[in-house]
Specification:
Phosphorylase Kinase, domain 1; Aminoglycoside 3'-phosphotransferase, Chain: A, domain 2; seven-stranded antiparallel sheet; six-stranded antiparallel sheet; 12 helices
C-alpha cells in the first residue's frame, strides 16, 4: 500500500514566515520530547499550512526533513512522489512584541529577519491565555481556515475552565481544564483519522465504560485531512498504572489483585473493539514473522548492542510459522502498558489509543492480534520491577500470571496457552523498546536489553 503524505504547500506565501522561523525551529524542535528525529539532523523545514487561530497565536503544520535514515510517514513528496525522510508536526506559536516573564520556559526565540522580524516566538500551549482560547474554539464548533472544531452536542463543556499543562514525558502535549476535561494535542501528524478519536468514538457507541468518550475534537482539511486534537473527560483522583505499580514495589505490596482486574479490563476493551469494528481472520503467522524479522533487522542496524542477540531473537519469530494462529485479528490498543491505564476507585480505565506513533497510521488502524496488547502489558510489569534494586523478578512473574488469568476469565481464552505467539509478540515489543530507548532515553536501554537477552536465550 503506498504511503500517504502531505503535499507541497499550494502557494508561495508560506515561504515568507519561514524566513523568520526557520533558524529558531531548527534549534528548538530537536529538543522537544515529542520530536521523532533526534538521531537525524534536520536538513529541511517546510511550512505546510499556517492559520491565525486568534490574535497573537499561529497554528502551523511544519514538515521536518532529515538526511539519511528511514522515511517518516508524514513527509512532503519529492518531485518523484516518494516521501523524503521526515515528519509533519503541529505547532501553536505565540508571537508577541514582548514575552511575559512567567512564560520564560515557553520561549523559542526572537526573530531576526523576515516578516516576523523583531517579534518574540514561544510555545503557545504553555500560555494559559492561549490554552483558554483554544478551549473556547472547541466549545463553539466552527472553522478557522482549514481548521475545523467539532463537539458532541450531548456534552456540556463549561466556559473559563482554568488550564494546566501536564509535564509528564509523552509524545504529545496534554492540557487539563479545571480537572473536568483533558485535551490531547497531537504533535506528530499523519493524514487520516487518528485512532485516539476513531476508537474512543466507537467504544462509546458500544457502551464501553472502560474508556472516556470524546467530548470535542479538531482537525484540518488542508493540506490533507488529519486529526489534530481530542478533548475527553478527565478522571479526577485517578492514578496511572505505572505510578501504582512503583508504589506497590516501594511498599512491598504484591499488586497481583490489581493486575488480575487490569486483565479483566483489557479483555472488556478487546471485546468491545471486536464488536465495534470488523474482525479479521486469525493472523497469517508467516507474514507476521517476516514483518517482525524485518523490524528486528532495522533495529539492529540502528542499535549495535542488539546485534549479538539477533539469531536467538529470530528463532522466536521463526517459531510462529506452523504454530496456532491464535485469536482472530481485530482492532486493538496498539501501545498498551501501565502508563496507558488509570485506576479511579476500584475501576481500571484504558486511555491513549493512538498506538505506537513511530508506526504508519494505516498500520495502527489495521486489525492485529490482541496478543500484541497483552505482550505490551507483560513487558510493562517487567519495566516496573526493574525500577528498584535489587530486581524483583518474582513480583513481575506474579503480575504477569494474574493479568493473564484475569484476561482469560473475561475473554474466554488464555494467553498463556498461546506460548509461541506470546513469546513472539513479547520479543517484538522488546525490540521496539530497545530502539525507542536508544533514541529517546539511553539511560533506560538496559531494561529492554535484559529482556532481549532472556528472550533470545531461553524464550520464557
Amino acid at each position: 500500500m503506498p504511503k500517504t503524505a502531505f503535499p507541497h504547500p499550494s502557494h508561495s506565501g508560506l515561504a515568507g514566515p519561514m524566513a523568520s522561523l526557520d533558524g529558531l525551529l531548527r534549534d528548538w524542535l530537536p529538543r522537544q520530547r515529542w520530536f521523532a528525529g533526534k538521531d537525524r539532523p534536520v536538513t529541511d523545514l517546510r511550512l505546510l499550512s499556517m492559520t491565525e487561530l486568534f490574535p497573537g497565536c499561529l497554528h502551523l503544520l511544519v514538515h521536518a526533513g532529515h538526511a539519511g535514515g528511514p522515511a517518516g510517514h508524514g513527509g512532503v513528496p519529492a518531485p518523484g512522489g516518494t516521501p523524503p525522510p521526515g515528519d509533519c508536526y503541529q505547532l501553536l506559536l505565540g508571537v508577541q512584541k514582548h514575552l511575559s516573564p512567567r512564560l520564560g520556559k515557553a520561549l523559542i526565540g526572537t526573530t531576526q529577519e523576515g516578516p516576523l522580524a523583531g517579534l518574540v516566538v514561544y510555545d503557545a500551549l504553555q500560555d494559559p491565555r492561549s490554552a483558554q482560547l483554544l478551549l473556547e474554539r472547541l466549545r463553539q464548533p466552527g472553522s478557522a481556515g482549514p481548521l475545523h472544531f467539532e463537539a458532541d452536542p450531548a456534552v456540556r463543556i463549561p466556559a473559563a475552565l482554568p488550564p494546566r499543562l501536564l509535564d509528564a514525558e509523552q509524545s504529545n502535549t496534554s492540557l487539563v481544564y479545571g480537572d473536568e476535561f483533558i485535551l490531547k494535542v497531537f504533535r506528530r501528524i499523519q493524514p487520516g483519522v487518528n485512532p485516539d478519536l476513531e476508537v474512543t468514538t466507537a467504544l462509546a457507541g458500544q457502551g464501553c465504560g472502560r474508556v472516556p468518550a470524546p467530548a470535542a475534537w479538531f482537525r484540518t482539511t488542508q493540506p490533507l485531512g488529519a486529526t489534530l486534537g481530542v478533548l475527553q473527560p478527565f478522571l479526577r483522583n485517578a492514578s496511572d498504572g505505572w505510578t501504582l505499580a512503583l508504589d506497590a514495589l516501594a511498599t512491598g505490596h504484591d499488586f497481583a489483585a490489581e493486575a488480575r482486574e487490569l486483565g479483566r479490563a483489557t479483555a472488556d476493551v478487546h471485546l468491545a473493539l471486536a464488536a465495534g469494528f470488523p474482525v479479521g481472520e486469525p493472523g497469517e503467522n508467516a507474514r507476521t514473522a517476516a514483518a517482525m524479522i524485518e523490524r528486528l533487522d532495522a533495529a539492529a542496524h540502528s542499535v549495535p548492542a542488539l546485534r549479538p542477540y539477533v539469531p536467538g531473537l529470530r528463532s522466536a519469530f521463526s517459531m510462529l510459522v506452523g504454530c496456532d494462529a491464535g485469536p482472530p485479528a481485530q482492532r486493538i490498543h496498539g501501545d498498551l502498558h501501565l502508563g496507558q491505564v488509570l485506576r479511579a476507585g476500584r475501576e481500571w480505565f484504558v486511555i491513549d489509543f493512538e498506538g505506537e506513533p513511530s508506526r504508519p497510521l494505516a498500520e495502527r488502524r489495521s486489525p492485529h492480534s490482541p496478543v500484541r496488547d497483552i505482550a505490551g502489558m507483560l513487558r510493562s510489569f517487567d519495566y516496573a520491577a526493574r525500577q528498584r534494586r535489587p530486581w524483583r523478578p518474582e513480583w513481575a512473574r506474579r503480575c504477569r500470571e494474574a493479568f493473564c488469568a484475569g484476561y482469560a476469565a473475561r475473554a474466554g481464552w488464555d494467553p498463556r496457552k498461546k506460548h509461541a505467539l506470546l513469546r513472539a509478540y513479547e520479543t517484538d515489543r522488546a525490540v521496539y523498546e530497545v530502539l525507542y530507548e536508544a533514541r529517546h532515553r539511553p539511560d533506560w536501554l538496559a531494561v529492554p536489553m535484559a529482556a532481549v537477552e532472556r528472550l533470545a536465550v531461553r524464550g520464557d
